[in-house]
Amino acid sequence: MNAKVDKLQNYTVIARLDDAIPLNTEEWLATERLLNQVSEFVPMSMLNALTESIINYADDQARRGYILGQEDLVSELKRKASKIA
Question: How sure is the predictor about 1, in pLDDT bands with cuts at 50, 70 and 90?
Fold first, then answer.
């Protein structure tokens, strides 16, 4: 049951990040241009594998950052609540 809850929480975090992070940034456009250039020289299957790896890494890093931010927020709220009590 715990694994099911973790999967749902991960999906929820990823969905929120996907909604909040725009893809039309200068960084993304530069990456997209590079991928298009590389696609002229490597097999498409290799490019797809590379792109999938980049996406998975970015999703994991964003998820970890989100979770760390939430942990920091909880710690801050606990600290403020202890001052009030």
Answer: low
Percent pLDDT > 70 in the chain is 98
SS3 of the chain: the string is CHHHHHHHHHHHHHHHHHHHCCCCCHHHHHHHHHHHHHCCCCCHHHHHHHHHHHHHHHHHHHHHHHHHHHHHHHHHHHHHHHHHC
Q: How many domains does the chain have?
A: 1
CA dist., res. 53 & res. 61, Å (int): 12
Give the structural domain span for 70.
Answer: 2-84
CA 36 to mean position of chain CA atoms: 22
